[in-house]
């Protein structure tokens, strides 16, 4: 018996139970309701839009977006549509002015970060299309140079977990959010001529 893929948006809980004459299997998946509220203007003014899932183009709902309030969960927001451009990781809290975060154009798209319990596995590559040096990670790495003598990372394969990769060592500078999947070129995500130097697991209980 196979569980159907569960939607992460507004799901309180999901349970699969299988009973067999030789064994019992109880698998429980628990998801939490995630919610972020976007506002047209700074300081939570103007029209608003409540979101609890991925949104590839905010202009469908708001002509502009310059502040937000994360009611629950964690989200990654982008300054271009279709999850492109500069990215920012947001925990529960209030964000009254994106200008203070270095986001001059406001939010254009967002992804929710689902709660995750399990192993973390990522394979990083020095060059695009999985070329050059290759290393497997199962934990945070604050400097690719110090640990692997690898000065750059331009592609990766995420097997398990959710990760944030940073432009500078010690988790500083511009960042990229990765969920499970293959990423052959970071240029396809709107980052060209940018070197990446550190990565950490998203383990926040937002």
TrEMBL record:
Keywords: Eye lens protein, Membrane, Repeat, Transmembrane, Transmembrane helix. Residues 34-72, 73-114, 120-160, 161-203 form the Beta/gamma crystallin 'Greek key' domain. One of its GO terms (molecular function) is structural constituent of eye lens. The chain crosses the membrane at residues 21-39. The keyword Transmembrane helix applies. It holds the Pfam family Crystall. One of its GO terms (biological process) is visual perception. Crystallins are the dominant structural components of the vertebrate eye lens. Belongs to the beta/gamma-crystallin family. PANTHER family: BETA/GAMMA CRYSTALLIN, CRYSTALLIN, GAMMA M1-RELATED. This is Crystallin, gamma M3.
């Amino acid at each position: 018996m196979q569980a159907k893929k569960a939607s992460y948006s507004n799901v309180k809980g999901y349970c699969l139970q299988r009973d067999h004459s030789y064994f019992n299997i109880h698998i429980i998946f628990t998801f939490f309701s995630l919610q972020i509220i976007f506002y047209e203007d700074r300081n939570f003014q103007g029209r608003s839009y409540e979101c609890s899932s991925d949104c590839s183009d905010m202009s469908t709902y708001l002509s502009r977006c310059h502040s937000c309030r994360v009611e629950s969960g964690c989200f990654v927001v982008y300054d271009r549509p279709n999850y492109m451009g500069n990215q920012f990781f947001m925990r529960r809290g209030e964000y009254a002015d994106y200008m203070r975060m270095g986001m001059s154009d406001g939010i254009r798209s967002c992804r929710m970060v689902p709660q995750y319990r399990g192993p973390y596995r990522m394979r990083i590559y020095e060059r695009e299309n999985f070329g050059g040096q290759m290393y497997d990670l199962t934990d945070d790495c604050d400097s690719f140079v110090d640990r692997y003598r690898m000065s750059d990372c331009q592609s990766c394969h995420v097997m398990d977990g959710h990760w944030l990769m940073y432009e500078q060592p010690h988790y500083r500078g511009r960042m990229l959010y990765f969920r499970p999947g293959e990423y052959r070129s970071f240029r396809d995500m709107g980052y060209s001529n940018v070197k990446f130097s550190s990565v950490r697991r998203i383990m926040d209980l937002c």
